[in-house]
Amino acid sequence: MARLLRLTTERSATIIVFLLLFAMAARVSADPDMWWHLRLGEYILETGNPVYADIFSHTHAGQLHRNHSWLAQLVMFGLWRLAGHLGLTLYVSALAASGMFFLYRVGRGSVYMQGFVLVIGGACAAAFWSPRPQMFTFLFSALLVFNLFELKYRRRDHLWHLPPLFAIWGNCHGGWIIGFLFLGAFVLGEWINQAAALGGSRIPAAKQRKLLLMALLSLALLPINPLGLEVFAVPFNTIGIGGLQHYIQEWQSPDFSQPYTWGFIMLLLLAVAALVGSGRRPDATEYFLLGGMLLMALLSGRNLPLFAIASAPIITIHINDLFSRRGWALPYRERETPRRLLINVSLIGLVALGVLLRVQYVSSEKTVNAAVAMNWPVHAVERLNSLALEGKLFNSYNWGGYLLHAAPGYPVFIDGRTDLYASFLDEYAAAYGASAWHEVFDKWAIDIALVESDGSLAIALEAAQNWRLDYADEVASIFLRNQA
Q1: Do residues 118 and 100 lie in contact, with contact meaning Cβ atoms separated by under 8 Å?
Q2: pLDDT tens, position by position, 245-280
Q3: 251 phi and psi, to 5 degrees?
């Protein structure tokens, strides 16, 4: 009983905040790329080879695909095989909540203030929390910031964590380069702080040298990877794909008319207010981290979680200084009365029940099937599989991953593996937009087209004399070429 009495209101609030963040990350598994990641995870489990000659498309058959997310895909497929969509829901929620926990650990101030900031940060990041390998980049980025800020603000040296962190990160996702962007901004900021006597908390020169040494060792360990030295080219090859920002929404700048950006806007305003109002001395490290991740978020919506990672702990540090200077502090209890304990346990139980119901709802067969049928050509694929046609397929980009999973007998035209289709996006867009579909279809000998029923290509195919509509519903249409 004595130990239970330590479940104070503050500790209960901490538990409730993370239950809410866990629930915030729990959503229906409805990401287009999820499907092909699962299929590659299955393939790797069967063959043991993350580097393979493509067998999933007819346009790039035999071309070497260096799969940089193989370890994350194995984790995803393992959870999928064990628990289906529930496994994927827990995968996203666990990694998201764990990342936010590291940000909480490095922040400052009361749990109420930190909880408020973390929930806004979660709203900023949640738009791109999904069952994909990039969840590991979210977690590892937060863990990296935790280690760096522990050194800067609490003089706790956990830098030996960095080399194994990057060794694992390099096998999970090509976003490992983001870690070195965090490191670069941090090291440069600390050097300027030392040179210009900025900031209220500066890392000693000896620790800066150790940090650089650990960063170099981390870089040296990255080739412990099926890709070998080619792991260094992965992020640059991805960034160099010209069509990414033209054709793929998550790579485009955020659309501030959409609700998914509201958390980012609130977090940015809160960061500005905290920096201005705290009265702390300017710190180059904080400004480099905030400015760098803000720039990345403005360039590409998929980087919004990185801004949340950089800004949340800095915001709490500045707000805590503001509150401390004004003498605004809430009393902190180490023990509770039995009556308060009962209230705390009841509140935690109610919130936990709500989270459990949320997870059960978003992962239930009924909910998932409804979402899948709304977003993917479920019934059209059933029709394709029943026909067992031998012709070559043209498909929508967003449906390629689903087809790898649901129609393995039909090699796709394209799917979400953009690193494989780097020079192919323009050709796909010319056909998909119906501007040059004749030429593309003739070049690739397309006999089957699976496209959105309300798209311009469906209209063009319906008007073409040598094509006929075989199947149509509200989501998808199947067109077959008339045989001469």
Answers
A1: yes
A2: 777 778 889 988 899 999 999 999 999 999 998 888
A3: -90, -5
